[in-house]
Amino acid sequence: MWLETYFFERMNITEIESLGKEFDPNLHNALxxxxxxxxxxxxxxxxxxxxxxxxxxxxxASVVVAK
Length: 67
Known about the structure:
Blueprint: H1 2-10, E1 13-15, E2 28-34, E3 43-48, E4 51-53, E5 56-59, E6 61-66
Parallel strand pairs: 2-6
Antiparallel strand pairs: 1-4, 3-6, 4-5
């Protein structure tokens, strides 16, 4: 784990913050939707973390979105 963290830091790779954030199709890949009016339009669960280098997306975050 520490080696992965070290490598990511050296390559300037950052995790895409998703949980509790508004769904953005440029950053997120919606796997499914659930009914939750209190969190409508937000990512409520992360299945797979997403990563980016500066503004370039390496992998979109796979999330569940509330509707």
